[in-house]
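Two proteins, back to back. First:
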Amino acid sequence: MRANIGKSVAFVVPIAGLAFLMAVGEPDENERCPGNLAFEKSRQLVEQRPDIVDVAWGNFRWVADCRFSMGGYADINTDKGLDRRDFELVIAFDPQLRRWQQVSFSISQ
């Protein structure tokens, strides 16, 4: 019986150690600024603009060094009604503040 317990412990301890190292080990380069969080933050920033009624998401791409760009079409509420325009949003992760920040937002005229 003790031999079986010893074998089980000898098997489980290295796997638990490996799982622990994977969880708290050195972060991967891509984990510093994951694209899925950048995508969600981009959507949030565009949807917070009061003049934008609807958005058709388009091109989402990694630019460089935790910078992401998102483009598409936006229906904008104007004095003459709705107007569909192209937009591009660039966001970046600020490691000192540990948050996403809007770098630029442009809408075609």
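And the second protein:
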Amino acid sequence: MAKKRKPQFKLPEKTCWHLYSLQELNPEKFVKVVGKILKKEYLLIK
């Protein structure tokens, strides 16, 4: 039986957020993302 290989690449971390995509996050992730937006580590797209 052949072994499955892991993908060779990883998706980059999402750094640009739209207001509508923030609405879909669970509360814990929402707080982390908004904190990084306020620290200007992430970009908010309106």
